[in-house]
Structure formats: structure tokens, C-alpha cells
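Example record used in the benchmark description.
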Amino acid sequence: YKTITKRVIEHVEGGRFLLLEKLVADVLNICSQAPEIVFSRVTIDKPHALRFADSVSLTLEYEAEAVNTLRHLEKVS
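Model output (C-alpha cells):
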């Protein structure tokens, strides 16, 4: 997890993100590249992003088995 954490920190510190969706997808992609990861859930919260709201957050999930199933279906089509 240390390696993944370092990669996420480098990516976030070195980038500019206009959309929360892009940042969450990028972080999830970094996590899912490690072959030992079979499931991950990334939630990023942006406090005070919207007027009259305490915060905005987005959660995305990755499941290796589901991805492998999708890849298999794509090959069959």
C-alpha cells in the first residue's frame, strides 16, 4: 500500500483537476493497476465546493473480477 499511496500523492500534488470526477477516476486507476488489488473504493470529498452545501463527494469502485468478466465479454462480441 505504501507504493500506491506514494503514487497517489505524486499524482495529486503534480496535477490540476478541474473536475472531481477526473481526480477520483485517476486515483482509482492508480489503485487498480497493482495486480494484488482485487477491490478498491475511492471517495474524495471537496468541502465547500458548492454554495449552500457543506461538501461534495464522489465514490467510485473497482472490482478485478468484474473487469475480467467485461474484458471477456468484449472479446466475445
